[in-house]
Amino acid sequence: MSGTSSHAPHHPPYGPPPLTAPGAAGTPRRPELPPYYEDRSPGRGALPPRAWYAGSDAARLPLHGSWRFRLSVTATAEDDSFARPDFDDSRWQDLWVPGHWVLKGHGTPAYTDTAYPFPVDPPRVPDENPTGDHRHRFDLPEGWGEGPAVLHFGGVESCARVWLNGQELGHFKGSRLPHEFAVGHLLRPRGNVLAVRVHQWSSGSYLEDQDQWWLPGIFRSVSVHRRPEGSVTDHFVHAGFDHTTGLGTLRVDCAPAGRVTVPALGLDLATGEGASVPVLPWTAETPRLYDAELATPGERIPLRIGFRTVRVEDGLLKVNGRRILLRGVNRHEFHPRDGRTVGREVMRRDLLLMKRHNINAVRTSHYPPHPAFLDLCDELGLWVIDECDLETHGFGQQDWRGNPVDDARWEPALLDRARRMVERDKNHPAIVLWSLGNECGTGRGLSAMAAWIRERDPSRPLHYEGDRSCADTDVYSRMYADHAEVARIGRRAEDPLPDPELDARRRRLPFLLCEYAHAMGNGPGGLSEYQRLFETYERCQGGFVWEWIDHGLRQLTPDGEVYHAYGGDFGEELHDGNFVCDGLVFPDRTPSPGLAEFKKVVEPVRIEGDGVAGTVRITNLHDFADLGHLAFRWVYEVAGEVRGTGSLAVPALAPGESAGLRLPAPPAAPGGAEALWTVRAVLAEDTAWAGAGHEVAWGQLPAAARPVRTPPAATAVPRRGEGNVILLGPGTFDATTGTLGYLDGVLLRGPRLEVWRAPTDNDEAAPRQPGRSPAAEWRRLGLHRMRHRVDAVETLADALVVRTRVAAAGAEPALRTVYRWTARRELLRLEVSVEPEGDWPAPLPRLGVRMAVCGSVGHAEWFGGGPGEGYPDTLAAARVGRWSMPVDAMQTPYVRPQENGARPGVRWAQLSRTDGSGIRIEGDPDFYLTARRWPVEELDAARHTTDLSPGELVWLHLDHAQHGIGSQSCGPGVLPRYRLEVAPARFAFTFSSLR
Ligand code: GAL
Fold first, then answer.
1. Is it the case that residue 4 has pLDDT exceeding 50?
2. CA proximity to 607, closest of 691, 511, 730, 698
3. Helix 371-380 crosses helix 411-425 at what angle (to 10 degrees)?
4. Topology alike, domains 234-311 and 719-994
5. Measured in angstroms, how far is the CA atom of residue 583 from the centroid of ligand 1?
6. N or C: which end of the chain has fewer CB within 10 A?
7. Atom of ligand 1 nearest to the CA of 439
8. Catalytic residue among 38, 439, 547, 754
9. Which PANTHER family does the protein's record reference (predicted)?
């Protein structure tokens, strides 16, 4: 660390770089010397990295705004005379900085997952290398003064060469890392001209093969910082917490030396001097920060100090002496209009949403985020894995031949990246692990990075997933391991490594899933089962859902309708489609159902019990906080109607404790209806991230045994009506097909068997698992084009029976389906029985009936699971109640349209017009209700949300069963218990009309 007398500064003060002025001749290529954007070096001329801080009393001048811009198709199309202050840029265009030029109408974005969008020939890049020349003229504010200053770039993709007032400062790579240049000697009060040439492709692109859009540009802020004589060159806050004594330890190293004051702790220390005082520790649940000030002869910096100690001990990852459980997400920086230019408000919004959904950890996949994000993590309380800007995944496609991380010539670039991350971010209490990068295979470059980081900051363990041997890491991390494997790892019984020593070492390490539960489209399924493993095995310390947000880019149709674009929508020759849309929130940051599910699954309080016996058990699953910050409330409902509410006195249980409590006497008798207790834990007071009353956890307990459903006795007799119809009770049927056409005057397209659903991304399972796609198998079997042959329409004494065989063209297996209709007064009952015939090699997508009603019947109300969608392995968040919403609101707008919107566990549903007329459906047993204004075929064919337009009908699916969702778009498929295996089935619905 740079520091006081005992800690020598590790870089020189801000001197002028020894570089050249622009020449008229451009940059002719000399074959023996690669141009700077194609050499392996991290760059030249930049200052050593230092800790970032939001502000100080040294002036800063942000340079955001409208710059002048010219785009060339190659790196050498234009010479560098544009860097001269007097260059005439009047024919250039305006461009807002920070931003990505491809999102501002210059060129187009491109998406690939792992493939490099250019020939793999490191470190060379293609001739087609979009190059943006930028110019910006600025004056210094009044009173800026003279003396040292630095020019700061927060992030530029992928390589920049920089001039100020005609003097070249240098060039750099490392897109999501800061770079600074000494400029004090060049600045003038007025008329400074900053010139920046940015190449989309550089040798650095080989190190930045993250699964995301390729978005060139100066995408983070650019600013000039005054560095007065005696200002802080660098500082390192060491703040630990000893849980055995309750003492915090503090030492702030700084160059040059100065003093640190922490008023709340009565501390006034020299830098480099240590102190031990009683403190409240920092944790993600209790993010206590102490305001402090660092003062050197030339500068005062406000600090926010969090005391905490991270250790790997006893095979566990511990903070302040306790095992932590990571309820995490992977977060890319993304905004649907601005790409990776993400403002502070958006960052805060992400974090508030996370906190409100019980998320306590973020992996900054796969690069250090904007530093303001880390300030917010300190403030709001999140465990952070800070990951280096490094991924070489595309080399995997060639067996890792030529992988830069195993090539000594790339080592300076790798070390530069490690340094820039650690130096910039080292003072954040929120960061508990450093990550070397993502998906780079293995190699000595990673070991070199690890060795440097360990030396520089021994206080944080290291993470990297790509090396199964864990030689360079302190935690065992994996992505997408299935439940069974996680259980084996939990028992420390995983398959051994070939090297017994490494194996023994790894077996002692804590385990986390740096990625799991791929949230692409509908899903992820199987979250509850993972959570159970994390709670069962102490070694399994949770994980990070892949990922936080869908990277869909906002576009307009010619009619001005908004949709979100994904790979291929910009004509890329190589792309990975909608694999870029796999988040828990939609591109506009609306929570998707997956987020609601995750919130429920990871809730830090468990509420369970026996409502019939009147008892409830509350368990505190926090790692640090007691339950004093929560209030508990109950609601008692009969048939979905509230009959009583109250609060429950719950002791301030310590983490891990649980208590059994008595519920009050039921406020009303069930009277043969379904009665339920709902107990909710809500914030007792406002917090920094949500207001008092915000719900953190809930549980529902039946208050009485569920009443048995007795089918209405059949009393009506089927008879022929006028025309080719059969009348039965309120139903009018087509006599040839046996299809219901009217229910008491409401026009219908009668229910008939349906097994198809518009495959979800998890059903498709593409693109990483070709050949293992359930949807491909379903299509092969023809489940999307089943034919219905009517074998008999029989009118019996009290029933109409329609016998059918449902099968696909070209296929032998069939579903013999019998519809048995009976009626009693205004009630019409349908019993469906399904007998499979032949060999069925795959489970079914769904099993139920589909029907259509007039589109005016546009409002749904139901008693069952809600308010959002739920499928067999995604229904933890479905709460039983009476829900009501327009059919249009029941749709989940997945970026690529697919099966969505099923409400699980529905006892009854009503679909009505504005005047209250419509139909009512009761299930026997409960069913999944889906209602939408387009048929499944249109949903299946749509590529974007705007491909769907409401038709004249509302299509209803009443499903007896659905196949689970799983996470196979990148991970394990549906767990066996959630597969919809083909088997004989019987289910019934009772229809009536609403008047
Ligand atoms: C992982 C990778 C992520 C993302 C994910 C799939 O292998 O680390 O960046 O590509 O798969 O969405």
1. no
2. 698
3. 40
4. no
5. 11
6. C
7. 8
8. 439
9. BETA-GALACTOSIDASE (PTHR46323)
| Residue to mutate, 212, 388, 546, 769, ligand 1, most ligand atoms under 8 Å from C-beta | 546
Mean per-residue pLDDT of the chain: 95
Q: How far is the CA of 515 from the centre of ligand 1 (A)?
A: 8
Instruction: Check if 479 has its Cβ closer than 6 Å to any atom of ligand 1.
Output: yes
Point out the ligand 1 atom lying closest to the alpha carbon of residue 113: 10
Helix (H) or strand (E) holding 629: none
Cα–chain-centroid distance for residue 465? 18
Q: What is the pLDDT of residue 11?
A: 39
Nearest CA to ligand 1 atom 9: 211
582 lines ligand 1 (CB under 6 A): yes
* pLDDT at residue 870 greater than cutoff 80: yes
Predicted confidence (pLDDT) per residue in 102-143, tens digit: 999 999 999 999 999 999 999 999 999 999 999 999 999 999
Whether residue 515 has its Cβ less than 6 Å from ligand 1: yes
* H runs (alpha helix) in 381-443: 411-425
Which class is domain 719-994?
Answer: mainly beta
CATH number for region 234-311:
2.60.40.10
- Percent with pLDDT over 90 in the chain: 95
**Residue % of the chain over a pLDDT of 70:** 96
What atom in ligand 1 is closest to the CA of residue 520? 12
Amino acid at site 168? E
Does ligand 1 come within 6 angstroms of the Cβ of 334?
A: no
Would you list the domain boundaries of the chain?
36-226, 234-311, 604-702, 719-994
What pLDDT digit, counting tens, does each position of 471-485 carry?
999 999 999 999 999
For residue 12, name the pLDDT band (cuts at 50, 70, 90). very low
pLDDT at 320 over 70: yes
* The pLDDT of residue 627: 98
- Above 50 in pLDDT, residue 994? yes
The 10s digit of each residue's pLDDT in 23-81 is 434 445 555 689 999 999 999 999 999 999 999 999 999 999 999 999 999 999 999 99
Pairwise CA distance, residues 930 & 969, whole Å: 23
Tell me the torsion sign for CA atoms 848, 854, 858, 860: negative
* pTM beyond cutoff 0.85: yes
Assigned token pair, 264: 């709340």
> 436 with 449: CB under 8 angstroms?
yes
CATH of domain 604-702: 2.60.40.10
- Give the whole-angstrom CA distance, residue 163 versus residue 864: 65
Q: How far is the CA of 594 from the centre of ligand 1 (A)?
A: 18
Q: How far is the CA of 576 from the centre of ligand 1 (A)?
A: 12
Pocket test for ligand 1, best of 478, 516, 970 (most atoms within 8 A of CB): 970
Ligand 1 centre distance from Cα of residue 518 (Å): 9
Q: Which of 892, 883, 665, 886 is nearest to 758 (CA)?
A: 892
Query: pLDDT tens for residues 762-774?
Result: 999 966 766 689 9
Q: What angle do CA 475, 479, 483 make, to 5 degrees?
A: 100
- Tokens 């501390």 locate to 267
Give the helix/strand (H/E) hosting 726. strand 725-728
In angstroms and rounded to an integer, the radius of gyration of the C-alpha atoms of the chain is 32
Strand partners, 195: 135, 163
Q: Measure the CA–CA gap between 960 and 464, rounded to whole angstroms.
A: 44
Residues 814-833, mean pLDDT to the nearest whole number: 97
Which atom of ligand 1 lies nearest, measured to the CA of 114? Answer: 10
Could you give the count of Cα atoms lying within 13 Å of 251 in the half-sphere of its Cβ? 10
Which atom of ligand 1 is least distant from the CA of 438? 8
Q: 36-226 has which CATH code?
A: 2.60.120.260
The answer to whether residue 168 is catalytic is: no
At 858, list the tokens. Answer: 């546009």
**Whether 952 is catalytic:** no
Ligand 1 contacts CB of residue 211 (under 6 A): yes
| Minimum CA distance residue for ligand 1 atom 6 | 970
